[in-house]
Each structure stands twice: as structure tokens, then as C-alpha cells.
Amino acid sequence: MPVDNKRVRGPEISQSPLLFLPPDSQISKVSSSSGRQGARGNGDIRPLFARCGLVSQAKGSAYLEAGNTKIICSVYGPRETERKDETDMKSGRLVCDFRLAPFSCPKRGAWIQNAEERDLSTALAESLQPGACLHRYPRAQVDVNVVVLENDGSALAHAVTCASMALADAGIEMYDTVLGCALRQDEERCLVDPDLAEERAESSAENQGRVVVALLPNLNQISGLQADGEMREDSLTAAVRTCVEGCHRLYPVVQQAILRAVKKKAAPPPEK
Amino acid sequence: MSPMKLCVPGERLCSVEDCIPGTGTYPRHGSIFASLAGYVLRRNEGEELPIISVVRETEAQLLPDVGAIVTCKVTSINPRFAKVHILYVGSTPLKDRFRGTIRKEDVRATEKDKVETYKSFRPGDIVLAKVISLGDVQSNYLLTTAENELGVVVAHSEAGVQMVPISWCEMQCPRTHNKEFRKVARVQPEYLQA
Amino acid sequence: MAAGFKTAEPLEYHRSFLKESCRPDGRDLGEFRPTTLNIGSISTADGSALVKIGNTTVVCGIKAELAMPTVDAPDKGYIVPNVDLPPLCSSRFRPGPPGEQAQAASQFLADIIDDSNIIKKEDLCIEKSKLCWVLYCDIMCLDYDGNLLDACIITLLAALKNAQLPTVTINKEKDLPEVDTQHKRHLHINKHPVSSSFAVFDDEVIIVDPTTEEESLATALITAVTDEDDQLCAFHKPGGSSLSAEKLHDCISRAVTRNREINKLIDKVTKSIKSSK
């Protein structure tokens, strides 16, 4: 293990107190019969709080809260590309950085970006790219930085929504806003916008899976789809359809947040 | 007056038969969609159809483009070229730093072979230039000052005082009265006030 | 042309304001930006706080873990502060390992924790030479507009005040710790250090609570940390132009007033959370 000498170091080994809970009080697993928290229906998304333009230094930014999941995103650029290769000459690049704050999960995470975060960065970039008009920014790159302050499930889906709000706030040209929605398939139950316990719950039953869909709502195109687990084909198609519906339900909140920021930034131009 | 219509990226604005797509919009499948969040503006400009565009508080993301006049600050010079940071495209400030290069042969239009970069620019000078190329894989934006209106607009003398242009190739320090060589732009009045 | 002047000649631009004893954002030379505090908003952390000083936004989350004390100090726990400046907070930071500024800030906080005894590390010991708490204080900047250190110390202090640790007993039979999350206790805050930062312009004009732009143009930066007993815990002036003793005293006395204001603010917010529960 290489020593990280750029940070203040603690003891070599430390363990989360959650490991030493008495066996009977372990965090209760979601049993498939019990209802969801806050009397939420299986198909309901958590109420969304969204704001644009909070980070003063960024070109555009957004903050999103769904239940306890809290995500902040800022967009910088278009600016000079750092790495140059032939493809950059004609169109711009979208560079995504996805991070989970060390205190965002029940167990403390490390500062160094782990494999999961790198995967999520790529997934985020791939979901956003079809939405952005990158050919308008030759030789330039647009940086999208996402930090999850608190992860209570569906982080990637909400990160996609948050990032596209930040892009719109930054005035980056886009074909469409990109919306994200996640789903947890648990046997015959479809839990839309799962919280962390639902997302991580283990089950030995069949037909288990997680699906994340990124949607361009006006063009009605899916720009990102991620599914893992073992699901039947028909459940998967149904799951994607449910996610698309979930995205559409987010749309009014997202729209409002973006427009609010536009109004705040400038009065309407004089009509000629 | 009714409040102006606002839109978010992806909203369908109208059919291509009704308007001509302007900035902040794009046509697809016979319709015009918004690509920016902002106010929807319809303008008649003598054409048959009005131009529809989406405007924001700042102008659309300007990037230095071929032919654009840019304001830059000289960062370093060597006998072959001067390196600059582009600060403005036209009158719009850039939020991020873009680097550009003014090669020796692009400093002025005449007697190109006699140009000496040291007698044309100094680090810290504010220079007006025009973009001639976006550059290739290795190089940055290529700029030129080979026009009367282009060249140094603000420069400080060795004594640290802002100098006054006295000819197209010389500036004078008001404190020490020393003359220094520069490729001077035919100065536009607003820069003198600043 | 004002915007052009600002970009092309930032120093002259600022000087023209300072001459009139005010600043580009409309503040007096000695005025702090509005400071707001939000405590306990992150439920996955054992303690958390978010501080805004003007635009500068910093969030701190504390995670407590169990570890063995060191051999040198068998009756002491650990406090591990780390400051991160992610690319999110400003275009000047790139992804990757922490840069110089983040490292310096982390070390500065670690020194303040050690020197001022915010928390007695003995309080973190559960059983001598066997088990103690580690408090990972992870501080993340979300919006960088100058005066990072002040924001970091306020958020650290507020998060520590907010932190609650579960009760831990050691099961003698199995020799394993047992954690009871039902009964949590607050930490005892021994000292309440708060810092005030200053920037020096042209070797003589001192301004309070500088923004990023002011920081980058200043000839010297100063941070004075005092506690609630008006004691000076740390004084940080990394190089820069020299300063007379009176001016330094002036800085310290301002830091003392600032400390009172901030501690009042922290108390007020903490109380409002308790009453709303």
C-alpha cells in the first residue's frame, strides 16, 4: 500500500463502529413485504429539490436533493483541452469527474478516487454526451464535476440530472436536457428511485437487478442504460419503461430550476 | 406586454416553416428546438421569415474563431514567436484561459524578414490580434498583428509606467522619456481612457 | 470599459477602490462577508456542518471509526483533518492528489487541533492501549472564493460540536468492542478557536476576509487564530511584505471580536437545531 503523504494520516487500521453492532440490531434489511420509507409507493420517485447556479466560481452549477441523496455539480469551460489528439480538432470533449465525498456513505470512503467512482464518471460522461452539442466547441473541453455529499441511493441517476442542469445553467449548447432515473427490481417488485438500503439489499431470490436510464425527454431517446443483476427479459423491458416514466415525472422540477436561474441572471432582453 | 417566453434546451420552439433557426437553436425533423436555456426571441430582419433565437445574459459561449479580433496579454517571447493569453474575443471576456501564438512572420505586413519579436512585444503588453488559424495538434491558436489596427495597445515601460504611442513602431515613457520599440496598433479611443 | 480594465489591469482596478477605502464588492476594508452556517445536514456523517462566507462554501463531515491507540500515547485518540479542494470548487484546481494549498490547509488545521486542544484527545480513548476513536474530519470546499482557512476552521468547529459518538463497551469475554448506537454522546469541546484572515495590499493597506481575486493580488496574507479566552492559538503569515507590530496587534484584536461573533453564531444555530427536534 503506497503511503499517502499529501494528506494528514490517521492510524494505519481503523474500523467502522457499524461492524461491532450487536448482531440483533444490524441495519434492518428491506424485507420484500414491508412498505417503503415514508409511505412511498413502489413507483413513486422521492420529492426532488433542485437549484441552479450556486457555485460562484463555476460557469454553471446545480444542486439536487432527492430524499437524503445530495448532489452538487459544477461545469467549467469550454476551455483549452489538456490532452490533444486528432479527434479534438473537430469537436469538443466532455470531461466528467464523479466523486463520493468520504462522509457520503455509511462507511467512510477514501479520498483517492476508487474504481467505482471511475466507472461512474465514465457512465456519466456517456449518458451526457449525446445531449451536448460538442461540435460547437472545437478544440475545447467542458468539465463536469460532480460531488455526492450524501449518498442515499440512485446517485448515478440523480448525478445525470444534476449535471445536465449545470450544463444548461452554464449555457453549453445541448440538444436536450438529460434526465436520469434508477430502479431496483426485487422479484416482482419494481422500486423506482431506490434509497441506499433498497439499492444495496441482498436477496437470494430470482429476478434481482438494478437499472439506470438516462433519457432525452423531448427527443425521446435513451442516452444511457445501465443494468446489472439477473433479470428476466420482460422485467428488464418493463423496468426501462418505468424508468422513462420516472424521468418524465422529474422534468417539470428540472425545467423550473433552470428557468428560475435564467430569470435570476438577467432581465428579459428588450423586444425589438 | 406579456412576459417573454423562456425555454430550456430541447424544447420545441416552432416548425422550420415558420422561422429561420438563429443562435441557441437547432433544426431537426422539420422543427426548431432550443439548445440553450434562455429567452425566446423572434426578430424580423427583412427576410421572408423571422429569425428565432434563444438569448441569455451572456452571449453564447464564444470561442476564438478564425477571423475574430481578440485582446490578449503577452506572456513570453523568443526570437521566433510571442506567446499570449487570449483575454477577450471581440468585446466579450473569456472566463477561461486560452493560449495563442504570434509568429515572427505574422507580426507585421511589410518587411517580414526584418521583424524582431523583442522590438515588437514585451511580456505584459496588451495586444489586439486576429485569429488566423485554430492551430494543429501541437500548436495553439495562431494569431496575427499584420494590420494597422492590430498590435500593442497598452504597454508599460521599464520604469513601470504606462507608455504613450508616438509612432507605429515606438512608444514613449512619460516619466523617463525613454523610447521603446513596439508594434503599435492604431489605437482606438476607448483604450486610451482605460 | 470597466470590465475590460478589471481583466487587463486587475491590480490597478483594485487600487482605485482601495484609495476610496472600499472594495469592488462594496465592502469596507474591515468588513467580513456575510457568514452563514448549517449544521447536521448530512445524515451519513457522525457530525457535519456547512459554512458559507460570502461565496466561499465549505462542508465538513466527521466520521468516527475505532482503532488502536499508538504506543507513545496509549490514552489518546486521533483527530485526522483533511482539506480537499476538488475541481468542482474552482477552475484553478485540477483532479488528482491534493495540491500545495490543500496540503497546507490540512496541516494548518492539524496544528490548530493539536496546539489549541479543541478536544482533549484523552476523551477519545475508550480503553487504554486497546481501543480509541479516530475522528476523520473531511473538509471539502464546494465554492472557492478566498479565505479558505477561516471557513475550514468554522466548519470544523461546528461539525465537532454537532458530532455524536455511539457508546462503546468492551465485552470482556470475547474481547471485542460492542457498539450501542441508541445511546450517543456529544464530544466535549475544550476550546473554541476561530480564525480571521487578512490580506495586505501594497505593503500597507490591510483588508479583512479577502476574496480569491484579492488574495491573488495581495502582497501578504495573514491568518490569526484566537480562542474564546482571547488567547492567540496560531498566527500564520507565510512570507510576503513586512508589517509593523501595531498592525499585527490590530489584526489580533479584530480576530478576538470575530471569534465572539462566530461562536455566538455557532451557538445560535446549534440551539435552533435542538429546539426544532
Automatic annotation (TrEMBL), chain A:
GO terms for biological process: nuclear mRNA surveillance; poly(A)-dependent snoRNA 3'-end processing; rRNA catabolic process; rRNA processing; U4 snRNA 3'-end processing. Transmembrane segments: none annotated. It is found in: Cytoplasm; Nucleus, Nucleolus. Non-catalytic component of the RNA exosome complex which has 3'->5' exoribonuclease activity and participates in a multitude of cellular RNA processing and degradation events. Residues 25-36 have a biased composition (Polar residues). Residues 45-173 form the Exoribonuclease phosphorolytic domain. GO terms for cellular component: cytoplasmic exosome (RNase complex); nuclear exosome (RNase complex); nucleolus. The keyword Cytoplasm applies. PANTHER family: EXOSOME COMPLEX COMPONENT, EXOSOME COMPLEX COMPONENT MTR3. The keyword ATP-binding does not apply. Component of the RNA exosome complex. It comes from the Eukaryota. This is Exosome complex component MTR3. Belongs to the RNase PH family. Residues 22-42 are annotated as: Disordered. Its main location: cytoplasm. Keywords: Cytoplasm, Exosome, Nucleus, RNA-binding, rRNA processing. GO terms for molecular function: RNA binding. CDD domains: RNase_PH_MTR3 (cd11371).
From TrEMBL, chain B:
It comes from Silurus meridionalis. Belongs to the CSL4 family. One of its GO terms (molecular function) is RNA binding. One of its GO terms (cellular component) is nucleolus. One of its GO terms (biological process) is rRNA processing. This is Exosome complex component CSL4. InterPro entries: Csl4 (IPR039771), EXOSC1_C (IPR019495), Exosome_cplx_N_dom (IPR025721), NA-bd_OB-fold (IPR012340), S1_domain (IPR003029). It comes from the Eukaryota. The keyword Phosphoprotein applies. It is found in: Cytoplasm; Nucleus, Nucleolus.
Automatic annotation (TrEMBL), chain C:
Belongs to the RNase PH family. Keywords: Acetylation, Cytoplasm, Exosome, Nucleus, RNA-binding, rRNA processing. CDD domains: RNase_PH_RRP43 (cd11369). This is Exosome complex component RRP43. It comes from Silurus meridionalis. GO terms for molecular function: mRNA 3'-UTR AU-rich region binding. Residues 31-166, 193-256 form the Exoribonuclease phosphorolytic domain. GO terms for cellular component: cytoplasmic exosome (RNase complex); nuclear exosome (RNase complex); nucleolus. One of its GO terms (biological process) is exonucleolytic trimming to generate mature 3'-end of 5.8S rRNA from tricistronic rRNA transcript (SSU-rRNA, 5.8S rRNA, LSU-rRNA). Pfam families: RNase_PH, RNase_PH_C. It is found in: Cytoplasm; Nucleus, Nucleolus.
